[in-house]
Amino acid sequence: MSPTLLVAVLLLLAALGYRAGLRRALAQAGGKPKALHSLPAYHGAYVALWALLPALAVVVLWLSLEPVAVRWLVLAGLPAELASQPAERLALVYNDVVNLAKGDAFAAQATPVLEAAAAHYARLKAVGEAGLWVLGLGLAASAFWFAHRRIGAAFRSRLRVERIIQSLLIASSTVAVFTTVGIVLSLVFEAIRFFERVPVGEFLFGLNWSPQTALRADQVGSSGAFGAVPVFAGTALISLIAMAVAVPVGLFSAIFLAEYAPPRLRDVVKPALEILAGIPTVVYGFFAALTVAPLIRQAGAAAGLEVASESALAAGVVMGIMIIPFVSSLSDDVITAVPQSLREGALGLGATKSEMIRQVVLPAALPGIVGSVLLAVSRAIGETMIVVMAAGLAANLTANPLAAVTTVTVQIVTLLVGDQEFDSAKTLAAFALGLVLFIATLALNFLALGIVRKYQEKYD
After folding, report:
1. How far, in Å, CA of 380 to CA of 292, rounded?
2. Which positions ≥6 away from 335 have C-beta within 8 Å?
3. CB 368 within 8 A of CB 337
4. Short-list 92, 113, 114, CA closest to 101
5. 390 falls within a domain
6. What is the pLDDT along the chain (460 residues), one digit of tens a residue?
7. Which range of residues forms the domain containing residue 23?
8. Which of 83, 168, 225, 435 is 20 to 30 A (C-alpha) from 213?
9. 350: left (phi over 0), alpha (psi -120 to 50) or beta
């Protein structure tokens, strides 16, 4: 009997609790809902939440702790000569025990010791599953009975239900906060390990990026070069090109759709623009590598310019096309949300429509527009596939958009591909790059908040 089936049973019990609570409330009020302190639905929700949440919390806690407890008990039951082995070897032994208990092909090579451990493991799992069902259903039934008995005409179920929901919302936001903190701490700790091997100044201000160990002494740094300036410069160059495409096109499209386009045309054009956001990035990468890059190379050759087969311009243009919907759709929504009274007041004072849009609508919608642009910048900074296929992996320090460059995200992927030992400067460099990228994104957020606060004061 799987935990999934238990959760399904608990959900069914919660549904029954809702019906039972609703019926008891109506019965207590003599069939007159107005005689109740709270609506009947709140009484039903109160019983349903009590029947579900405590048991569900026990299931989650049990599933989190049970693997640790079972592993400890199985390893504790092994003979002393086997249990005294290093942790890596014990992990392999435990994996063999689990496979043997599940009936995998390993059973033909099993020793009596492993067979006994597998039987012990199977017994523990069976007892654990039975205990989980007994504890979960028993707690759910007890909570059902407790909540059902409290239902009455004067019972303030609405307040209690809202308090429970508020607690759930707080718990959910707390999980999100702790997840963010965990991500940041993992980046910080691994980046500290990297900076113990490579000086911070060399990483932030060095001009050579060659993280792999050199094969010859005459190569750039016999143990690798970790100057990340070329990587940061490539990220900034491609992002600037992408934003130079996406912001004007997206913002002008939003203004047209919100202020000038007839409703029928808007109903066609806006969904068509938003389709761009649903195209996989690998498809954009094919488009950049097979269509845009050759066109740019041919145009550059016709103008007498030297254009690399993989260039920042090709990647930036296609990336800008990809993020147009982020600017267009969100800007359109915030422009449409500007109160009509502001438009009518401006027109009533003699402003033309274009003046009204420039001097009233856009300033009033500026916070939302800044938010859409910030989202587009974050999307551009974090894009990987288009850069890999259209801009390449070369860490060149250049401001020439016709040259090949690379970005932070591409280097992170490159450093972590394949079997890696997380104890070398090469692999740990990925965490340092991620930390710098996180700090840069955070700085952009603070900048956007400053712009929003500055201009919001004028229209509050």
Report:
1. 18
2. 254, 255, 258, 259, 361, 362, 365, 368, 369
3. yes
4. 114
5. yes
6. 677 888 889 999 999 989 988 888 888 877 777 777 888 888 889 899 999 999 999 888 888 888 888 888 888 877 877 767 777 777 777 887 887 877 765 555 667 777 788 888 888 888 888 888 888 889 999 999 988 888 888 888 888 889 999 998 998 889 888 998 988 898 899 889 888 888 888 888 888 888 765 444 454 445 567 888 889 998 999 999 999 999 999 999 999 988 888 888 888 888 888 888 888 888 888 888 888 888 988 888 888 888 887 888 988 999 999 999 888 988 888 898 888 888 888 888 888 888 898 888 888 888 888 888 888 888 888 888 888 888 777 788 888 888 888 888 888 888 887 656 667 778 888 889 989 888 888 888 787 777 777 766 455 4
7. 3-155
8. 435
9. left
Give 304's DSSP letter.
Answer: T
> Are 160 and 49 spatial neighbours (Cβ–Cβ below 8 Å)?
no
**Final residue of a structural domain among 155, 170, 188:** 155
What whole-number distance in Å separates Cα of residue 94 and Cα of residue 121? Answer: 10
Cα–Cα distances in Å, from 453 out to 1, 247, 364, 377?
56, 21, 12, 20
Give how many domains the chain has, as a whole number. Answer: 2
361 belongs to a structural domain: yes
Which phi and psi angles does 2 have, rounded to 5°?
A: -85, 155
**Helix-then-strand count for the chain, H and E:** 18, 2
Does residue 228 share a domain with residue 91? no
- Domain membership flag for residue 116: yes
DSSP letters spanning 316-337: HHHHHHHHHHHHHHHHHHHHHT
13 residue type, one letter:
L
Q: At what angle do helices 87-101 and 40-76 cross, to 10 degrees?
A: 110
Q: Distance from CA of residue 394 to its chain's centroid?
A: 28
Cβ atoms within 10 Å, residue 404: 22
pTM > 0.85: yes or no: no
